[in-house]
């Protein structure tokens, strides 16, 4: 509901209320209202007619059009579809991790095999037996 609609409704309500107050005032000015039995009641009603007013002022209300547009945009959004996509992405995470790390695992295995091969080659090229034999001879001679 826009401010303009509220203002138009207030204007119509004010016009109708003014008309009703005029009819009441005419009725209260009828000779029957001045009879002793009705005079007191008519005076109370007559004195309270000024209280029938509309005090609404909608001109100070800020516009809400931009907020309504945003609410309508949210209402147009297929939230259940977004939630389903979120669930699907969450549920697909394990497969995604496996698929994305598959190549990395083979690369890591290749690097480790290369390191193992280098260690094997190094130990073959290093004359460990000869070094131990020479060390044993040296220690034996040193003790003598």
TrEMBL record:
Transmembrane helix recorded as keyword: yes
InterPro entries reported in the protein's UniProt record: Prominin
GO cellular component: apical plasma membrane; cell surface; cilium; microvillus membrane; prominosome
Database matches in Pfam families: Prominin
Compartments, as annotated in UniProt: Cell projection, Microvillus membrane
Keyword Protein biosynthesis part of the UniProt annotation: no
GO biological process: camera-type eye photoreceptor cell differentiation; photoreceptor cell maintenance
Single Gene Ontology MF annotation: cholesterol binding
Keyword annotations from UniProtKB, A to Z: Glycoprotein, Membrane, Transmembrane, Transmembrane helix
Main subcellular localisation: membrane
Membrane topology of the entry: Multi-pass membrane protein
Signal peptide range: none
Similarity comment: family membership: Belongs to the prominin family.
PANTHER family per the UniProt record, alphabetical: PROMININ PROM PROTEIN (PTHR22730), PROMININ-1 (PTHR22730:SF3)
Protein name (record): Prominin 1
Species per Swiss-Prot/TrEMBL record: Hypotaenidia okinawae
Record lineage: Eukaryota, Metazoa, Chordata, Craniata, Vertebrata
